[in-house]
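note to self — DONT lose this again. spent like an hour looking for the file last time. sequence + predicted structure for the chain T wanted, 869 res
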Amino acid sequence: MEATDRREPWAGLFERLEVARDLHARAKWSAAESDFRVLLADLQEHDPAQLDPLGRAQWAELMVRSFLGLSNPVHALAGSLGDALALCDRAAAVERRVPDPSMASLVLVQRGVLHSRAGQPRQALSNFTQALRGPGLAAHRDLATTLLNRGAVYSELGDFAEALSDYRAAHEHAAALGHAQYIAFALHNIGYARYTLGNLPGALESMERAVDAAPDQDDGIPELGRAEVLFESGLLEDAEQLLAIAAERLSRAALRLEHAEAEWFRARALMGLRRFDDARTQAAQARRRFERGGQRSMAALAQVLELDSLLSETLLSTETPSRAVARRRAREGRSVSAVGDAAGPTLGYHPGHAARLVAARWSVLAGDLDEARDTLAALPRGMAGAPLTMRVQHYTVQAELAFATDDRAKGLRAVRAGLGLLADHRSRLGSVESVTAAAAHGVDLTRVDVEAAVRTGRPAALFDALERGRATFAGTGRVTPPDDPEAAALLTEARGLLVRARELGAADAKERERLTRRASRIQDEVRERSWRHAGNAGAVQRPVTVRELRGVLAQSRRDVVVANFVAMDGVLRCVRVDADGVTTVDIGSADDVIEHVRRLNADFTMAANDLIPAPLRAAASASLARNLKALDAVLLAPLHADGDLYVVAREPLLSVPWAALPSRGGLRTSVNSYVARGRTHARPTGQRRLLAAAGPGVRHGTDEAHAVGRQWPGATVLTGKDAVTEEVRTALATHDVVHLATHGRHDADNPLFARIELADGPLFAHELDGTPLPGSVVVLSSCEVGGSSQVLGGELLGLTSVLLRLGARAVIASVAKLSDELAARVMPRLHAHLRETDDPEAALAAALRDVAEPVPLVCFSSVEGLTAG
C-alpha cells in the first residue's frame, strides 16, 4: 500500500487486504472471495462511530476496497453483474458515511471494470474517464489499474492508439510502485496494442518482457496474447498449440470471456490448418460462452466463423454444393450481419462486416452475383481500420465476384491490392520463418487468382498468377543480422550439446537422446526469439511476368525452356515458356509423381549404403534407374526441352534429382521455387575467392576439400579442428565460392535448423538469417540438406532455400543420399569447370556427364538477366 501511518489493528487488516487483492490479480477467484468475505466480517465488528477520525478513515478505506475487491470474484464465479454492482453500491454507501474523493473514484473504477466485463464498453469508458478526471486517484497502484482497464476498453472499441497511450502510462505507475504483476500486465497490454497496430515483432518483444516480469503468472492471459500475435504472423500451428494451453489455463482461472476468446482464435487457427470439424466445434463453444457472458459482438463473430469454416471446406472440396445449400448459407450470413450491426464492433472486428464478407462469398458460389454485389456494397470502401485478415478477405471476395462476372481487369486489381497489403505486412517481419509464414494469410487470394487464370485458358495468365503469389513472400526480411547476443549464446549451448551427443557411442543411447532433446528445446527458444526481429529489407520484389521472361530468353544465345509446375485438384500442370511462346502441358496425376519421388529417395538411400549387401544394392540401383526413367517420361518428355531447363516448382518436385534424369545428361538444369530476379550473367574471367571446408566423419572429406582447393588459386582450405562454424559463417558472407564437404541433415519438423556438421558442432540455417550473401555459389557436398519443407501457405524452408533468399547466386546440393566416395570423385571436376566458366549449371552438367551411376546433386538457381527490384 502507498498510504502511510497504518496503525494496529489497521496495519494487519491492510496486509490481509493485500493478500486478497494479490489472489484476485492472479485469478485465484475462490480463495480471493473467501479472504474478502472474512475480512469484511472482521471489519464489521468495528463501530465506526467509536473510532477516532484517522481510525474511521482507515476503516472506511478497508471496507470500500474489500467490497470492491469482492465484486470481482463474485462476477467471475457467478457471472452476475447485478450482484457485483450491488457490492459497489455497498462500497459507495460506506464512502458517503466517511467522504473521501479517492474512495469515490475507486467505486467509479470498479463499476467500469464490471461494465467492461459485461460487454458494456461505452459505459465502462465513461466510468474510467470520470474517475481519472477527478481528484481522487493519486496512488500509483490505483492509477495503474485504472489506466490498464481503460486501455482495455479502448482496445475493445478499436481505438488502439489511445489504448497504447494508457498502457504506457500504466507501466510508468506500475514501475514506480515496483509491483511485478502490474508491470507484467502493462507490458503484456503494450504488446497487444502494438499487435493491433501492426507491429508484430514489437508485440512479441513486449509480451516476452511481461513474462520475465511475472514468470509465475498461470492464468492463460500471456499465452492468449502471444498466440493471437502468432496467428496474425501466419504461424498457425504454433498459435493453435499455444491457444490449447491458454484455453485450459483460462478455464481453470474461471476467466470465462477470455476462455471464449481463446476458443474463437483457436477455431480460426484450426480453419487455416484445414481442420474444419475441429474449427466448427471450437467456434460453437466460443459462441455459447460469449452468449452467456452477454458479449453479443463476439458471439456474432463466432457464428460467422462457423459459416466461414463451412465455406472454406466447400471451396477446397471436389464436390460443388447445390445452389439451394449455398443460398441458405448466404441467407444465414446476412442474418448474422444484422445481429452484428446491432451489437457493434469489438477488438477492431466488426461482426456485421465479417458476416457480409462470408455471405457474399456464398452468394458467388450460388451464382447469385447481383446478391453478392449488393452485400459487398454495404461494406465501407477499403475496410480501413479492419484487421489484416479481414481486409485481405475483402479483396478476395471482390476478386471472386469480378472474375465470376468476366471482369478480369477488376479482379486483377483486387488481387494486386490484396497482395500489396500482404507485401506491406511481410516487410515488417524480420525472420525468414515469419516471412514465409505470412503466406498463410494469402492462400485464398492466390487460389482465386490461379483458378481464374486457369479458366481463361491462357498459359501466360496462369504463369503470371503463379508468380504474383510466390514473389510476395520471396526473399528475406532483413539485410543485416539481428543484434541478439542471447540467441547466439543459446545456439552455442545447443551446438555444444549436439557435439557431446555426437561423440557418444552406441552404449550411451539414452544420454545421447537426452542431450539431443535438450538441444531441441534450446532451438525452439531461439526460434521464438527470432519472431521478435523487425524487418529492414525494404520493398518486396516485383513478380516476373511471361512478357518480361520471354524478352530475356529471346536475348539468350542458348536454347532455354522455363518449366513452371503447379498441382491443382490432383492434376500436375506445367506452363512451358521459351523465346517462341508459352503453352500449358497437363502432366498427369500429382499422386503418381509423389510416389515416384518417394521411391527415388528410398532407392538412393539403399544404393549409397556400403553396409547393405551387394545384391540388395544392385536391386536398389536397378529400381532407381527404372524410377528415373519413368519420371523422365512423365515430367520432361512432354516439354521437349532439348537445351537449358529452368524448373520452377514446389514440393515434391523440388526433391526430384533433375540433373540425374536420363534426358538431362550433359545439359544445364536449374531448379527454384519461384522465378527469382537479380541473377547476373556468368563472368568467366576475374578473381574469385574460394573456401573449402571438410567436416568430421566424412570418409574422403579432407582429400576432397584439398582437391577442390587446388582448382582455385589462393583458395582457403579448412580441415580437422580448423573447420569451425565461425569460419564458415564468415566465408559465406565474404567469399564467391564456398564448398562444404560435410555431413548434414534437413530437419523436416524444424527446417530452419537444417544443419551441416563442422568440427565444433553444427552450423544451423537459422544462424545465417539476415546475413546478405555476395551472389556466391555454395556447394554442399556429401549432405542431404538439399531438401526443404513446404510450410502452410506453400512457402519453403531449409538450408538451400535460406541461402538463396539471402542472396546466393546458386546452391548445388544433394536431394537424396550421396556417398562420400562419389562426392569426392565428382566435386573436383565440378570446380574445374566452375573456375573456367563461372556457370554452376554447366559445371554440374559437365561433372556428371561421364559418371555411370545417378548422382542426386541439383543446382538451385534461376534465370540470368532478370533485373532486380
